[in-house]
Automatic annotation (TrEMBL):
MHYT domain segment(s): 10-199
Entry's transmembrane regions: 12-34, 46-70, 82-103, 110-130, 142-164, 171-193, 213-236
Keyword terms, alphabetized: Membrane, Transmembrane, Transmembrane helix
Region (Disordered): 251-288
Compositionally biased spans, kind Basic residues: 265-277
Entry protein name: MHYT domain-containing protein
Transmembrane helix keyword on record: yes
Superkingdom: Bacteria
Keyword Nucleotidyltransferase in record: no
A Pfam family matched in the record: MHYT
Record lineage: Bacteria, Bacillati, Actinomycetota, Actinomycetes, Kitasatosporales
Compositionally biased spans, kind Low complexity: 278-288
C-alpha cells in the first residue's frame, strides 16, 4: 500500500523558516570564505573551517526544520539519532572540501567547478543520508530522474554561490550569494522530496527512534548556537564589513603586479647618474 505524503503539514511556516536557516548558514559561511581570501595563509585555514561548519550546520538545520512539516498519514515517523547526526558530519566535511579548494585555488576555472561540485554533492549527501535515518512502517523509494535533477540543482547553485563569494565585492554581494545558497539547499530538498514514494508494509509495527519533536531541541540548541557564535565573529571583524583588505595584501592576486613602482625607482637614479657623469667630461676642458 502506498502512503499518503504531506510535506507541508504546517503550511508555509516550515519552508520559510528552513529557507532562512539555509540563508543564515550560507551568509556566514560565504563571508568567512571571502575573508579567507583577504588574509595571510596562516589565518586562512581557520576562516575556511569556520565557513565550512557554518554552511554545514545551516543546511543540516534547514533539512530537519523542513522535515518537521513532513508526515505520512498512515504511519508515525521517527528518526535514528546516530544516522541523523552522521548526516551533519558529512555535510560539514564535504562542504569543507569544496570551500578549501576555492579558498586556496580561487573562485575561477577548474577550482571553482571542482569546489562547487563537491559542495553540491555534500548538500545532496546530507539530504539523502538524513532521509536514510527515517524510521517508519514502510519503505522509501525514489524516482531516479528526479533525484538526479535535485543533485544538479545543488551543484549548480552551490557553484554560483562560491563564485559570488570569491568576487570580494562587499557585504551586499555576499548577501546575494547567501540567498543563492539558500535557494540551492531548499530547491534541492524539495525536489528530492518530490522524488519520494512511501510503500507501507501494513504490519502496524511501531517504528524505533526519536520523534521529530525530540530532535528539534538539539537542532535549535546546537547548530543555531554555533551559527550565532559565528555571526558574532563575523560582525566584529571590521574587514568583513568592507569586503576588502585594509592593507591591500598582494599575495596570490593573479594579474595584479606585486609592487609596480619599485623597479622604476631603482632605474631612475641609475639613469640620472649616467647623465651627470657624461656631462662633466666635456665641461672640464672648457673651464681651463
Amino acid at each position: 500500500m502506498q502512503g499518503t505524503i504531506d510535506g507541508f503539514s504546517y503550511g508555509l511556516v516550515t519552508p520559510l523558516v528552513a529557507y532562512l536557516m539555509a540563508c543564515l548558514g550560507g551568509a556566514l559561511g560565504l563571508r568567512c570564505t571571502t575573508r579567507s581570501m583577504l588574509v595571510s595563509r596562516s589565518w586562512r585555514p581557520g576562516w575556511l573551517a569556520l565557513g565550512s561548519a557554518a554552511i554545514g550546520s545551516g543546511i543540516w538545520t534547514m533539512h530537519f526544520v523542513a522535515m518537521m512539516g513532513f508526515t505520512v498519514k498512515e504511519t508515525p515517523i521517527h528518526y535514528d539519532k546516530a544516522m541523523t547526526f552522521a548526516s551533519l558530519a558529512v555535510a560539514i566535511v564535504m562542504v569543507g572540501v569544496g570551500i578549501f579548494i576555492v579558498g586556496y585555488r580561487g573562485a575561477r576555472g577548474a577550482a571553482l567547478f571542482t569546489g562547487g561540485t563537491i559542495t553540491g554533492l555534500g548538500i545532496a549527501s546530507m539530504h539523502y543520508l538524513g532521509m536514510a535515518g527515517m524510521r517508519l512502517d514502510g519503505k522509501l523509494e525514489y524516482n531516479t530522474f528526479t533525484v538526479a535533477v535535485s543533485v544538479v540543482i545543488a551543484m549548480g547553485a552551490a557553484t554560483a554561490a562560491l563564485w559570488a563569494a570569491g568576487q570580494v565585492r562587499g557585504l551586499l554581494w555576499s548577501v546575494g550569494a547567501s540567498l543563492v545558497m539558500g535557494l540551492a539547499v531548499s530547491g534541492m530538498h524539495y525536489t528530492g522530496m518530490a522524488a519520494l514514494d512511501v510503500h507501507l508494509h501494513g504490519t502496524g509495527a511501531a517504528a524505533t527512534g526519536d520523534s521529530p519533536a525530540a530532535l528539534l531541541a538539539p537542532m535549535l540548541v546546537g547548530p543555531l548556537a554555533f551559527l550565532v557564535l559565528a555571526g558574532v565573529v563575523v560582525l566584529y571583524d571590521p574587514k568583513m564589513i568592507m569586503g576588502r583588505p585594509a592593507g591591500a595584501p598582494v599575495e596570490h592576486k593573479p594579474g595584479v603586479p606585486a609592487h609596480p613602482t619599485v623597479p622604476h625607482q631603482a632605474r631612475r637614479p641609475a639613469l640620472r647618474t649616467r647623465r651627470t657623469t657624461g656631462s662633466r667630461g666635456p665641461r672640464t676642458p672648457q673651464n681651463h
